[in-house]
Structures are given as C-alpha cells and as structure tokens.
Fold:
Amino acid sequence: MNFDLYVITDETIGGGRSHAEIARLAVLGGADSIQLRDKRRSCTGLTVIGREIAEITRKAGAVFLINDRLDVAMACGADGVHLGQDDMSVITARQLAPPGFIIGVSVGSVEEAQEAERDSADYLALSPVFSSASKDDAGPGHGLETLRDIRRAVSIPVIAIGGINRKNVRDVIEAGADGIAVISAVVASPDITAAARELRELVRESKRSVGR
Structure:
C-alpha cells in the first residue's frame, strides 16, 4: 500500500462537489488512498456513497477506506477502515474484518502508536501534526518532534495529517512520515486534480531528497 498522498473527502469545503466527485478528481491527480469521512450521514447513506467511491478507486488502482465505521466499510466493499482512539479497538476490528482488510489508526503519542502496532494496525496517522481547521475535533498540533519519536518507535507506516500543505510537505517527510493525508489542501482547491498532482510530486521529491 502506497501512502504518498492520502485524500480525505469533505463535502462541506468541496465547493459543491460530492464525496464521489472529490474522490474521482483526487485519484485523477494521483492520490494513492481515499478516505470517506462524513460524520453526519446515516449508515445507509454512507454505504451508498461508499459503493460509488469503491468503484472509482478500484478502477484507478487506489486504496479506499472509511472513517470510523467498520460496518460501512465492509458493507460497501472498501479496502479498509480508519479508526480513532474513541472508535472500535483494532483487536475487535481485526476479529470482525475479512483477511487482508486494512486497518489504520489515528494516534497522538508514542504510547498510542506502539499499542496500535501491537494490536496489528496496518498503518498509523499522527493526528494532527499541525493545528487544522479541517479537523477542529482533533485538538492542537502534536508537532514534528512527536512525529520523529513515533517514526523511531514503530515499524509500520506513519502518515502525517493536520495542517499539511505544499509549504510543509518536505518538513513532515524529513521528520519520517511515509506520506501525507490532507483535506483542505486538496478538497478546498478550485482544481482538485491539479492540487493532488502537485502534492504527490512534492512528497516524491521530498522522499528522493532524503534517500527514500
């Protein structure tokens, strides 16, 4: 699984575009992973949207994940689920999910990262690295030093999310992130495809510069 550019959908800042349209435009720009995030919709509504996005990502060769809801992820044929600290445990999700199902976890400390790895998470997301209006429920940014500490403490992929934009991509890659997850830096752009393409190339350039 490639984590260079992980785009999280958000209709509230998407300029009138649907989750599915955001996903379609993002993968056209090279997004490796798409996460459907919508805390307002019902299970049924999310499943319908998820099935539409699953078809888009499957054709593009991108990974598709659902935020929080394992039931929705399994019902719509997503590749995995992304869990927060207050969601279902990784251990329980692993017991319920089919073989090969991807489980990611948001963490805010080395201890949470190590626990998630022990519990068989496939990847981690330090959330947020920097403070972000797009994830105002995530609290203040943890900073680059926490990112470095987590990268040293675990062996599974670590994604940086929260306040990531073209100006700080190199900083988070140099601090050890395997990729970036973004909302507003892509979704709020007038040209989602171009924004995704630029960020993905910045990630790749940054990785080359540090020998990765």
Notes: The chain has one domain: 5-209.
